[in-house]
Specification:
The complex is a heterodimer of chains A (522) and B (113). Chain A is mainly alpha-helical. Chain A is built from 20 helices and two strands. Chain A has helices at 2-6, 8-29, 33-59, 91-114, 121-140, 144-162, 172-201, 206-212, 217-233, 242-249, 252-277, 283-306, 311-335, 340-379, 395-408, 415-430, 432-457, 473-491, 493-509, 511-519; strands spanning 62-65, 86-89. Chain B is mainly α and 113 residues long. Among the domains of chain B are: 1-35, no CATH class; 71-113, no CATH class. In chain B, 51% of the residues lie in helices and 5% in strands. Chain B has four helices and two strands, in the order E-E-H-H-H-H. Chain B has helices spanning 15-35, 71-76, 78-87, 92-112; strands at residues 5-7, 12-14. The radius of gyration of chain B is 28 Å and the shape is flat. The chains are: A mainly alpha (522), B mainly alpha (113).
Chain lengths: 522, 113
Amino acid sequence: MNSILLHAPALIIALPLLAAFITPILGRFNRKTISWLATCVLGLTLLLTIFVARQVLTHGPIVYVFGATETGLTLPFGYTMPIRIIFQIDAMGIFMGLITSLVAFLAAIYSISYMEQHTGLDKYYTLLLLLATSMFGMELTGDIFNFFVFFEIASISSVALIAFRSTISGEPAEAGLKYMVVSSISALMVLFAIGLFYGQYDALNMATIASVMQFTQLDKIALILLVTVLAMKAGSVPMHMWTPDAYSEAPAAITMILVAASQASLYALFRIVFSIYNVTLNTITVGWILIILGVLSMFIGVTMAIIQKDIKRLMAYHSISQTGYMLLGVGVGLAVLTNPVALESFGIKAMEGGIFHIINNALYKGLLFLTAGAIFLRTDTRDLNKMGGLAHNMTYTTIFYIIGAAAIAGIPPFNGFASKLIIYESVYRFNPLLAIIAMLVSVLTLASFVKVFHSAFLGPRLEQYKSVQEVPKSMIIAMAVLSCLIVFFGLFPNLIVKYIVHPAVMALINQAHYTATILGGI
Amino acid sequence: MNIALLETGSGYWNTLIWVVTALIIGVCVLWLRNRGESRYKKDTDQTKPFLSGNPEVSKEDSHVGASHLYWGFTEALKNYYEPLVKMHTGNINDYSGWIVLVMAIIFIIIGVS
């Protein structure tokens, strides 16, 4: 047992990866067992992630060296820099890991019924498990080339899942192709940036690069490439256009994971800016770049959402808008990173708001996409104009939708309100106009989701939907868990902020601690 | 630690107080509603909608679709929406173009800073 727990960081990756390869073999013998295998493996991964999170949050960062005689041996005798692949799991990394494991597990539960009628389930679950594995890798690794490898696996599996033939309307293959092109561009840029680091510093370990960072012209170019493509992969305006295509065409459970995958890219952006560059770069300039990208994403995302008639495209534009809040909060923190008074006064809080919003968004946005999937399963359409009166027959889905919509609109006492309130109040002290825009976006978000509620759920029973029934139990369970978490996070926000979010923010800010974990000195 | 108390850096927010307040207000509203309206007479013309003398449209036909909602809002912001919608061409070449454009802008900003 101790050995299993000792190797928990590796098992978080190894279990879903192994299951991904077992799935197609098992699928040849028994089609039904593969959905349960994926669910059980992802459930086990969730337990391991919770265990690692507990260790990290109580005892500090965990280092796991692959292939070393001891898992914590970062510098073998005679070496001054790490040569092996290292997982460096701090509070920020495991914060993201928790989101991924929870979302992937619930997506697997939801898929049991949602994908039941489809063929090619062995491929579906293999890709789902690979996507989860790659997201864990992106979030836990301390090696930038290793990050690139997982980044690529995430892109490839996402492309295949977006193009998965799960919808009878729309053009999943086209959406997959578009995502493949933007992913290829981003992968090339990331690889080029890694080459620039390796060419200068002979290192691929992020802590090592951070410790010798000179912020040369080449480092500036690497920063520009990484900030641009990772912001694009997070769905930031004006590079967001792949998002509505991909999110709307993918199966609902996959869309929920894609939201978390976009957030993994956002995490990578924050990790690179804070943990590798930190104060060597012009924090005010880069901070404002993030803020401007955030404000554009918030405003353009929500205004585009309000005019949509396709329920999933509408929700996809809201994902863009919500990413804006995260960029705004963390951008403000970065902009005041070199000003200790401002950082202490409101910078850390702004970052807490931004980081807290990541987990909140994963929960309510995931829930909303699942409700959209439930509606699609029963009505066979995503067109809001063709819907109406579904609340009569789909009571649970309606309740879950109300919870998700209220949370994303920032209505108390749901979780979205808690993170948005922190963002408003802290950002106001940095620049009042930014806080006002953020509040206006919340109002428009509410308006947009009222439109969906009215169009899909309210009104008399329509003739064509009179025989519509509530969705199967596995889908209800997944949505119910997300709803409970949304309410819990909203009722007890301080619990989450103090024990999970604040340590994550401090792990991002404290670069010296990040490098010392690998190179010694703590 | 009060787990329901959220510190925002500038103030505090207590979720439980909000929930209790909302419940009290809800109970008051329900109490007022249950007191009823003495002039209300069930199943009379009083309870039917008045549409300038026109017959009432069936409920199934009167559901307002999504395209008709917020018409005034989008019409008022027509000048904002027209270029914005045009930007979203759905063409992958344009998607790539935006990445290059943003990269160039960030390059200039970071380059001169």
